[in-house]
Amino acid sequence: MNVQQHKKLTDDIWEIAKRLRGPYRPPQYRLVMLPMVVLRRLDCVLEDSIDRVHAEYNRIKAAGTPEKAMERMLARVADPDRKQPLYNTSQYTFARLTAEIWAKVGDA
Hints:
mainly alpha; 2 domains; 73% helix
């Protein structure tokens, strides 16, 4: 990466940070942004499996499957190669949540 590209990328990142910061003072910024970045990263990691996991969750919940068994089953549906279970049973993703918020803003 050349110096000009690096400078442009750095400027773009800082501009985005300024926009995201909004009404927060600099000491408060880390308290809001770090958790949001972590949540967004998890959302990206789980994006490919969210629909499969949610469908399986509804199916096994309706069948009365015990909670311990649900964890193992959902972990396999999400990613059979992952050593630690990581899945989301919520219907929300960042994309769905923002779409719902924008729809409500449009109705107001």
